[in-house]
Structures are given as structure tokens and as C-alpha cells.
């Protein structure tokens, strides 16, 4: 056969070759799951830790007023930054509306795996009473063997100090509004604390750079904290202190000895999720502080024995509400969930 003849038949030869490959492939056995597992080496992935709950839910207590001086005619709110903080750690949120019926609050506490008390600008006796009952419920759950964490931030931490210290006048005036500061580690023993998984280099940066955002006019000095000898020092371990604008030292992070309860006189969610205040630290390290703090909280919530009915959870999730953009004026919270 001449070269010209071969060239003439070349397209047909290529077509037959393609058809042969296609027919051979279509007749071949498609690997099933067993074949696939055998090829990769079963089991493909290790089983999760059955002692942990991987669908944790956090209850966030709403704060009195609408956060806008009553202009919006709402009775309570949750800054969306706290919701995002919880979600960034791998959990969902159920709002615990402070003025709803006591039975409803009790029911919601059976659907969550931990609780968060937010910061805020005012308190009412009704709010304080509900927060105290929730605090007592957290203690009872843990004493009964159900690991149940609580975070209190800024005003939330102040509430914890009041409840544990049994003194409504224990707080002192500090000048820490709109202030980023360093955290002075009061102890080197951070095992089992919120800071246990922080990389050493990040802990060092937290003690040398201003990575913690404060927004408080009251706090508690280390001296007053320690003089409350029958209550606070036996319940809380001081982890960090900070210094206000007038060089006054105050307790900035404390963690309970015998309960998964942590109090912050700073607000970790602000670094990553609030934009109205230009003094909030924005560096990559500041964002890592937010993330590490969220991760610890939710890792503690996964230890909870509460495994609620999913239908009940869905009925109460914060997804049933819509956040409102409130940050156009460049101050306050960027987004807020309002509750009638």
C-alpha cells in the first residue's frame, strides 16, 4: 500500500481505534464501594470521637433595649458579631430572649450546649434575674455531670463577678472605653484554660501588642478581686490583667476552677466582626485571637451530653430572624438582631 493510500485511510483507522477503546471501557466492570475501599485501604477515614457532640448549639442571652435609645421600639437585641463568633467556631445559635416566659427559657436551655452573655450598655432587674437563673442552671448542669460551658464578655463578665462575689457594688470605675490593650498573663499555667491551644508565639504577641479590645467603664482590680477571699478567688482563677487609660490595672480574663466558665473584660468578637470603631485591632494576629477564643468555646460545647431533637432546634434557631444593618453611621454595632 502506498503512502498516499495509507494517508487516505488514516482517519478511518483513528475512528476504529477510538471505538475499540470506548467498547472496551463500556464493558469493563465499574468499581463498587468495596473495590474503592480496598484500593485506598479501609477504613477511608477514622471514626469521630463518639464522646463528643458535633452539632453544638449555643444560647445567647438577649440584651435589654434595642441598642438605639428606644428609637426602634424593640425590647431586646443581640449584636450579630456574637452570633458570627459562635458560628466561626462551628456551632449554631438559639436566642434566649430575656423577657420571654420562664418556661420557654427553661425549654431553650435544654436545647443548647452552652451559653454566652454578651456585652451591653445597661441592665434591668429583670435581665439580671434571668442571667442569674441561667448562671445557676449552668452550675447545676455541670455538677450533674453534663459539661456545659458559659462565656461572659464585658457586661456579661461583670454579671458573673456580681453573682459569684455576692456583692452588687464590687465593681470599680475604669477608663477602658474604646481601648485596645495588651494582656498581661497573670499565670504561666495555661493548661486546661481558654488559652491552652494558642500558639506560644501568639501568646507572646498578646502580651506585647494591643490585640484585646475593651469597651468598659467598670472593672475589678486584682487587689479587690483577691480581697473577696470567700468567693471570687476560690471560684475564678485570674488568667490575665490589663491596664486602662489611667494606668490602673484590672482583671481582664478569669476562668472558673471547677466549671467551664470564662469571663472576659474585653470583647473577642469585635476584632473580626465589628467595623464601626477604628480603634479595634485588625491585624492578622488580632483575627487569630478571635478565632482561637471561639474555637475553645465550641470545643467545650462539644463535650456536652445534651443532644436535642433537631426539629425543636430548627424551630428556635436565630436563622428564624433577620439581622439589621445598623453600621451606616460608623459607630456602634454593624449588624443587630432585634426582638419585639
UniProtKB/TrEMBL annotation:
Subcellular location field: Secreted, Extracellular space
A GO molecular function held by the record: gamma-glutamyl-peptidase activity
Catalytic activity of the protein: (6S)-5,6,7,8-tetrahydrofolyl-(gamma-L-Glu)(n) + (n-1) H2O = (6S)-5,6,7,8-tetrahydrofolate + (n-1) L-glutamate
E.C. numbers: 3.4.19.9
Record flagged with keyword Cell inner membrane: no
Gene Ontology CC annotation, any one: extracellular region
Signal peptide positions on this chain: 1-28
Keyword Signal set for record: yes
Pfam families: Peptidase_C26
Gene Ontology biological process terms from the UniProt entry: tetrahydrofolylpolyglutamate metabolic process
Entry keywords, A to Z: Hydrolase, Secreted, Signal
Principal EC category: hydrolase
Record-stated family: Belongs to the peptidase C26 family.
Protein name: folate gamma-glutamyl hydrolase
Organism: Dioscorea cayennensis subsp. rotundata
